[in-house]
Design a protein that fits this description.
The chain has a single domain, classed as Alpha-Beta Complex (Maf protein), CATH 3.90.950.20. The chain has a five-stranded mixed sheet, with helices on both faces. The protein is α/β, with parallel strands linked by helices. It has six helices and five strands. Helix 1 packs parallel to helix 6. About 45% of the residues lie in helices and about 20% in strands.
């Protein structure tokens, strides 16, 4: 993911300029976003923590995603992404959170929720979290996860630049 390092650096530079810490709440990426951020020397002054919440239980226990949300909408949903982003802010010292939940494949997809579907949640202290949906081409698990990392960082940068 070294080609994503400049994007991660830009995200951290904006966090530093704003004087805020960042947190991640990751499901389908399994910690790839936080790993990329913490690969950058000096990131400890812009990164608070990363939550890897692969299971529904982890989403509930670590982030406060409600059982009702998971039952009504599923783990891969707008509602879950929003609760993940809000939960990462509430359970950290971060000023911005990046949350991802999706279906990276090769299986697990359905007609309603195909492989490649990812919901992104972004939380910024003092604002309502927002969610975005993407369906990435099913070019394999690694491709979907890589594009998820890229998109999460791009959404985080956009959210901070509008502040």
């Amino acid at each position: 993911m070294s080609d994503l390092a400049p994007l991660a650096r830009r995200f951290l530079d904006i966090c530093q300029a704003r004087g805020i810490l960042s947190a991640t709440a990751e499901s389908c990426t399994g910690g790839l976003i936080i790993a990329l951020l913490t690969d950058i020397p000096g990131s400890s002054s812009m990164v608070d923590r990363g939550f890897v919440t692969y299971s529904n239980e982890a989403k509930m226990e670590m982030l406060g995603v409600t059982a009702q949300t998971l039952q009504a909408h599923g783990a891969v949903s707008r509602e879950t992404a929003l609760e993940m982003a809000a939960g990462a802010l509430a359970h950290s010292r971060a000023g911005i959170s990046l949350a991802v939940t999706g279906i990276a494949g090769p299986d697990g997809g359905s007609a309603e929720k195909p492989v490649g579907l990812v919901w992104f949640g972004v939380g910024v202290k003092g604002r309502e979290p927002f969610a975005e949906r993407r369906i990435f081409e099913n070019n394999g698990r690694d491709f979907i996860r890589r594009e998820t990392v890229r998109t999460a960082l791009e959404l985080g940068i956009a959210a901070l630049e509008t502040r």
